[in-house]
Amino acid sequence: MSVIRWVFALILLGCMLVLAGCDLDNVPKDRPDPTGGAGGAGGTPTTTTAETVCDGECHVWKSFVFEGLSMYWIGEGTPPECPESAPEMGSLVHADPKPVPYICPTCSCAPSGCAMPDSTDVSAGTCAAGAPASLTWDSPGWEGNCTADGAIPPGAMCSGIPCTQSITFGPPVIEPCAPIAQGSEQPTEPVWGLTAQECILGPLTGDGCGESEACLPVPPSGFSFCMYRWGDDLDPEDCPAQYPAFFRMYFDHEDHRSCAPCTCSDPEGTECTALMSVFSDGGCKNLIGAITLSSAVGDGCMDLVPGTALGSKTGSLTLSKPGTCTPRGGSVGEVVPAMPVTLCCQQLELVP
Fold first, then answer.
1. What's the angle, vertex CA 174, arms to CA 172 and CA 176, rounded to 5?
2. Please, which residues have CB within 8 angstroms of residue 79's CB and are 6 or more apart in sequence?
3. H helical segments located in 192-316
4. Neighbouring C-beta atoms of residue 293, cutoff 10 Å
5. Model-wide pTM > 0.70
6. What is the DSSP code (8-state) at residue 125?
């Protein structure tokens, strides 16, 4: 056994010596250099992929809370055109509606006036007794001329007693001021204290930036990147750290403005007095009595001989001092924002 082991050992030693004498010059010249360098003549150099670098700015753009990222101009008045880096105009939203009224007719009031008493009641009792009216002797629209309308014959009886024992006139009527409207209604466009114009960015990629970030161009002066979410269910503390400026804007509005019709307040300063005369005949010749009435005093009562005929009456205004009224009307209502959208933006100075 020992002889066989020695034989194998000698054969193995001989092979090793043969291999050690191999010529290294026989290695193929087109084999790549294992160190990564260029091979010999005719070799193909190795290549490496360069890391992508963002040539703008990296901004967070992916969020489970927000629906997207856009560039916005936010300020007062009319926004400028979108920049070349985001040329497509998106939604135009507003906030802070100003109290801009409709252009409405100018309201004024004509002076108030005086008119004849509009009520005459005949009672089967004296003025002192304060008996209720038994008959009426009204003359609607009466201007005071002699009239026999509604005449009461002599001896008329009411529940067994004479109907005509006293007569009560209402005071002179203070006529309301007539409203005057000058001009026509002209609706006006709403005016907003704040406007935001969206400028849509191109396709966003994360090349050259960190996770959930996009490489974006530097926004021009007056523009800012904003995360947006439709609705009003977010508060300022929900804005990401990179987008701390909170705005609640509105895509639409409801215009409840209109022009109320011109009206006038109750008159002030009007003074009216009237002289009322009653006659037993129908031609205003046989005078029974007369009474002076005042708008400042109220009703006036005059006793009659029981059963006297009331054939006719006359009246005249002895004082008619016009009064004044305060006009009412004009623009009413307001603009109510609708369809809210929440913006969380990078810090920016609002454009006046």
1. 155
2. 73, 92, 195, 196, 197
3. none
4. 22
5. no
6. S
